[in-house]
Amino acid sequence: MKVRWGEAAGALLTFLVFVALPIAAQYFIPTQILEQFSATGLNVQTLAREIATIGIIISVIALAKAFVERTSITYLILNISSNIVSLAFALLVVGVGNISSLGYSSFNLKQGKVTTEILLDLRVFIYLTIGVVAVSVLQTIARFREARAEAKHTPPN
Amino acid sequence: MKTSQILGIVLIILEITSVALFLVCGQTIFSLLGTVAGEGGEIPVIVDQKTQIATLTFTFTPKNSGLIAANVIMGFGITLTDGSFSVKNQTTVSLPPGTQQSVSLNIKVPVDKLQEYADAKGTLNIFTSIRTLNDLVKLDYNSKNEGGG
Predict the structure, then answer these.
(1) Which of A41, B48, B81, B139 has the greatest CB tally within 10 Å of its CB?
(2) Nearest CA in chain B to A127
């Protein structure tokens, strides 16, 4: 089996950035700040776990791609899956932990007699991300077809 | 040029645009956020003894230190819990990058209604909405202070 070590290293880097970093980062945030976030309904630890979960999926897909032929259907499916999982990741981050909010998040904080409501509308970035993922899927399909066409015209060694 | 290469260029343009817009919008909103609070949080009350009407004035001085223009909606009001009285005043200011504007808003409240609010029977509502990128990105901040205490 031929392994593309560059892609395997990319998978390791993805793991470090999207899994190890969020898990480690929560231990460096002061407890007081974590409690303040918690009071607004945002659980930083849960958010870090969710980011890490998606990070594991992205890393596994990236690693699997390193072992699969670029002209195979499996590679195409893995690539498209990776794009879709990336969209889920963007929804999670822009929605501040709530994928279903689709970039429209609200937080409430009650301190004594003062209630504060914060509403964040970042839906335009979700639309842009959907556009990026759609173009990315199209590019994946185009690359796959081009690789297959090249393989057909290349005489076997 | 191959189709995948053309799509690759489109993808790079889209990604750079998205990230740049996200950073610029974030920077504009957060630069304004610190300046939209009322001056010192104090609301001067002037009572007209003849009419027994109190005038409450709230002054905002939003400053846009961001890179793109923003619209800021600011307002405040008082609502009594039983629904018998409600008053609010709001305004919108457009701030090109690097500008600031001072805004004073007044509301008139009968003294007896103001007393009811002070007796914990009402809410003082201060709200701010910062909108940028042609109002496509926004942050609303709404603070409700119960009277009394």
Answers:
(1) B139
(2) B18
Assess contact for B141 and B131: CB atoms under 8 A.
Answer: no
Q: Using DSSP, state whether B106 is helix, strand or coil.
A: strand
B1 part of contact set with chain A, CB < 8 Å: no
Q: Please write the tens of the pLDDT for every residue from B65-95.
A: 999 999 999 999 999 988 889 999 999 999 9
**In chain B, what percentage of residues exceed pLDDT 70?**
96
Q: How many distinct structural domains can be found in chain B?
A: 1
- Asked if the model's pLDDT at residue B38 lies above 60, the reply is no
Q: Which site among B2, B3, B123, B131 would you substitute to test the A interface, given the most A Cβ atoms closer than 10 Å to its Cβ?
A: B3
- Whether residue B23 has pLDDT greater than 80: yes
Q: Is the pLDDT of residue A124 over 90?
A: yes
Structural domain boundaries, residue B139:
3-146
Cα nearest neighbour of A106 on chain B: B140
- Whether residue B62 is predicted with pLDDT greater than 80 in this model: the reply is yes
Q: What is the mean pLDDT of residues B32-55?
A: 81
| Residue A5: strand, helix, or coil | helix
Of A109, A117, A140, which to mutate for an interface test with B (greatest number of B Cβ within 10 Å)? A117
8 Å CB contact of A125 and B7: no
Question: Residue B54 maps to which CATH number?
Answer: 2.60.40
